[in-house]
Amino acid sequence: MDDFERGYDFVLRQGGGHLGAEVGVNYIRGVQAAIDELYRRMNAYDYYQATKPAQESLKGFLAEEYAAGTANIDAAVKGSDVRFEVLHSHDLGSVDVAGPGTAYQLKIYESPYQTVRALGTTLFDRYKASADSAMMGFDEWAALKGRPGASPSDLLYEGQFGLVAPDKLEDCRQEAFKLLAKSKALGKDAEVQRWKKVADGLVDRVRGEDGVEGRALTVDEARKKAIEVSSGRHLDSADDGMTPAQLVETQHLLRQSLKAGATAAAVSAALKVAPEIYRAIDKLITEGELSEEDIRTIGAATLDGGTTGFINGSASAAITAAAAKGMFGQGIMRAASRSMGPAVIGTLVVLTVETCKDAFLVANGQKTQKELMDGFTQGAFVSAISLVGAGVASVVSGGAAIPMLIGSLVGSAAGGLAFSPAKSLVLSLANESGFTFFGLVRQSYELPEGTKDRLGIKKASVKSANLASADVRLGRTRTASVKHASPHTISISYDRRGIVGVDKIGYMPS
Questions:
Q1: Is residue 219 over pLDDT 60?
Q2: pTM recorded for the entire structure
Q3: Which of 7, 71, 203, 317 has the smallest C-beta neighbourhood within 10 Å, fewest atoms?
Q4: Could you report the per-residue pLDDT of 144-171, keeping only the tens digit for each?
Q5: Does residue 365 come out as left (phi exceeding 0), alpha (psi in the -120 to 50 range) or beta?
Q6: Pairwise CA distance, residues 266 & 405, whole Å
């Protein structure tokens, strides 16, 4: 595997981490955005006067916003696409709060009897109370008001749930049952159906699919908010327990991390299998057929890429969401919420996961400590270059996830190509400075064997057995021996430092 392939292989693992981290931080951002939207809408009513009549009117509008907004916050927390909306319509019998397949009419009155009577208003009641009844018949009036073909006994809020305060819900039901029982005793079937519809439709909060529901708001709570807003004091979400730290629970983080892991697994599998498919197509063109081994290789690449992407993606999503929620402190929360925060956290998670995996292989004897250190060194270097690429893509794309992933891919590939020359530079700097780069380069200060010999340092000798042999004496002729005198001089030599092993700097004989 060459340096480019190593860089590409690393981004397959890192890409899942980046995607997972983006999903995690975007999840918390989505929750925060839903919270901000609700309180922005409620605080926007600050133009109301601080008078009791104005505040009594305002409390109903704030209750509508609160009902829809808290449901949207709950949907964001649960990762649901369900959304509710306040319609602000003044048409006849118009809906106050609408959601997917549901509609609500809010009546937050102090009197349960008044509440039930308002919800039980029929079209004929409204027709008789209007000035138009003197000039036109009911059918003409109903068509003019957008209800052609309607029956006089139809409810004004037909098909809508009656949204009331939770502290008034049971009393409202009792009032509806009283009117129902009275109508039944008098034999008025139309009236029985009228009050049965009202009783069956009474709720104290909005609800939608995926278990999404809003919060209930009592009359006193709504009135208090109206007084605050009309007095120019903005409502604070923390006072209502509406912050990501207060709303997002461990179960929500786990659910999001699993979803992020699935997404990262799909992307990582696609990236992993792409080169294998390319090789298979090339072989099919040149040789005209594919072997069983080729098919197995593609399947193994898909499985390996998907597994790696799921682990890195789910872990990154969970950790990033927890950081953005504030579980690790305010400083890390702010860092995670920045544009490059998810990429950095995702990279750290991938490095940690890969290092733990390699350490396990070292413990099982499947890898050496040297291979572990080499892998970590290259991973850290490639990650740094990858973050540069992701940062450039973030600036160009405005922080979009896919362009950042592509930037990370380009950076990782470039990092893989640049790793070998960079490693040589690191060794050169280590040789000149003595710096170990946090233990990645070993520094040896032992003297070479040649230097020890020149200094006369005796080494331990191992005794060996000598076999006796026959000694044949030979005659020798004596010759004159002339002795020469030589002056003693000092010999000075310098050892130099250089690479004496793999990632090891030491002294070398000159």
A1: yes
A2: 0.63
A3: 203
A4: 998 999 999 999 999 999 999 999 999 9
A5: left
A6: 14
C-alpha 58/C-alpha 52 separation (Å) is 10
Task: Find how far residue 439's CA is from the centre of its chain.
Answer: 33
- DSSP code of residue 223: H
What is the number of alpha carbons within 13 Å of residue 297 lying toward its C-beta? 12
Measured CA distances, 253 to 24, 79, 205, 506 (Å):
8, 10, 25, 51
Question: Which range, 112-126, 238-252, 369-383, is most confident?
Answer: 112-126
| Distance from C-alpha of 494 to C-alpha of 144, rounded to nearest angstrom | 108
Cβ atoms within 10 Å of 71's Cβ, excluding its own: 27
| Ramachandran bin of 163, using left for φ above 0, alpha for ψ from -120 to 50, beta for the remaining angles | beta
For 375-379, the CB contacts below 8 A with 24+ separation are: 376/351, 377/423, 377/440, 378/6, 378/10, 378/416, 378/419, 379/10, 379/350, 379/351, 379/354, 379/355
CA–CA separation, 385 vs 418, rounded Å? 9
Sheet of 97-99, strands arranged across: 85-86, 97-99, 102-106, 161-163, 202-203
pLDDT over 70 at 453, yes or no? no
Cα 298 to Cα 272: distance, rounded to the nearest angstrom: 9
The alpha carbon dihedral of 338, 339, 342, 345 has a sign of: negative
- Contact call for residues 334 and 289 (beta carbons, < 8 A): no
Q: How distant, in Å, are the alpha carbons of 264, 314, 327, 425 from that of 319?
A: 15, 9, 9, 35
What's the pLDDT at 203?
Answer: 96
Residue 212 identity (one-letter amino acid): V
Cα 159 from Cα 101, distance rounded (Å): 11
- Report the sign of the C-alpha dihedral through residues 223, 229, 235, 239, in that order: negative
The encoded tokens of residue 332 equal 């890390």
What 3-state class would DSSP assign to 325? helix
pLDDT bucket at 486, cuts 50 / 70 / 90: low
CA 208, CA 206: separation in Å to the nearest integer? 7
Do residues 161 and 201 touch, judged by C-beta distance below 8 A? yes
The model's pLDDT over 419-439, given as tens digits with 9 standing for 90+, comes to 455 455 455 545 555 545 445
In our burial notation (b when 16+ CB lie closer than 10 A, e otherwise), range 168-183 reads bbebbbebbeebbeeb
What 3-state class would DSSP assign to 467? coil
Least confident of 11-15, 325-329, 360-364: 11-15
Q: How far is CA 459 from the centre of its chain?
A: 63
- R_g (Cα) of the chain, nearest Å: 40
